[in-house]
Amino acid sequence: MRQGWRSRRKALGAFLWIVLATLPGCASMRNRAPALDLRPCTEAFTTTDDGWKLGIRHYRAVRPDPDKLPVVLCHGLGLNGTFWTITDDHLPQQLALGGYEVFVVDLRGSGASHRVGTIGQVNSILRQTPFNEWDESTWTMDDLVRFDVPAVLDHVRDVTGRDRVNWVGHSLGGMLMFAFLETSPQAYRIANFVGMGSTPILEGAPKSKMLMASRKLRSLLTLISTGRIARPMTVARIPGLEAIDRFYYTASNVDKRTISRFYGYTLENPGRGAMKQLDPYLEFGHMLSADGTYDYANHLGEISTPTLLVAGEGDIMADVPSMQATFQALGTKDKSLALYGVGHGNAHDYGHCDLVWSRHAPREIFPDIARWLDGRQGPVASPQRH
């Protein structure tokens, strides 16, 4: 009897998902979210040199500390700025309470960010459907490094008058910063860098399962928007997704409400160009430029920016050996590696997104990040030219 009910419940869930996935209004659902923290970043926009408008939200310091540089929080691939704010007592809030001006960004292809001109106007219509937007398969991580990061830095400077920032990136939001620090003439504008689950070195490559999943997802993206068809999972889940979910988070370490918000408000199309750039990374273990001519992993020794790497013992995508290899390769004299798991006295072995989403992160991880940043502000944060 019970088994029959479970089967019927799964069938009903799958049916509801199919119905909801075909409904229009994908973007409107997010715009009407009950809290600003769940909506796209539309408080302000900054324009890149190649014609993207990036959405930004500003979390203002409760008691501004003039000795503290602004903080930029950058999400990873296939996510948006709400990645940082779908939980209670989130990191932007804690940093703002500590006197920091905090800026959360929607990189290109995510949130409210959009192309200018006719393409952007057409995409605003397609964004209300399960179908892909025009020209969303062409950009790569290198474009984020070359165009998105400088545009965000310029916006923060215009708002705060500070030319330099503390950059906190999760996953690709941190990986792109390694590339920026190695190649950009503006690298000096990053006073301190925190990489959470971010590594341009992947130990134990090839990662065959991850590579296969990435290629299948890229193929699916040629037909339909995977980010938008997943949004109905806010209310109804398709059975059998546990293996995929495990790459993102550990179910026992993350509240169900957070998981629901992840599918409804945070998940985006990864971008096929950026996903293709990850192929050699997953196959050979080094992050390369999109044209394959520059190995970002081999130039880590050139980075002099103070760096904190944050790693979870349960992270599958950026595992501890890979984070340790990145830490060892970094050239900066001021570097720290923080590991989070049961073996280090924590409540849980943290997974990839658990570092930000876990119910334990506000007291086990966020205070450590704030303390590390606090120790490098004021006169300590002197410019380090690239």
Gist?
With 386 residues, this protein is of the alpha/beta class. It has one domain (2-336, 349-377): Rossmann fold, CATH 3.40.50. It is built from 16 helices and 9 strands.
Characteristic terms for this protein:
Rossmann fold, nine-stranded mixed sheet, globular, disordered C terminus
Structure notes:
With 386 residues, the protein is α/β, with parallel strands linked by helices. It has a single domain, classed as 3-Layer(aba) Sandwich (Rossmann fold). It is 39% helix and 12% strand. It has 16 helices and 9 strands. The protein has helices at residues 2-21, 26-31, 91-97, 117-126, 141-160, 172-183, 208-220, 226-229, 242-248, 256-266, 272-277, 279-284, 320-329, 354-357, 361-364, 366-374, and strands spanning 44-47, 52-59, 71-74, 102-105, 114-115, 165-170, 190-196, 307-312, 335-340. Strands 1, 2, 3, 4, 5, 6, 7, 8 and 9 form a 9-stranded mixed β-sheet that branches. Helix 13 (320-329) links the parallel strand 8 and strand 9. Helix 5 (141-160) packs across helix 6 (172-183). The longest helix is centred in the N-terminal third of the chain and has 20 residues, at 2-21. Residues 11-24 and 382-386 have low confidence and may be disordered.
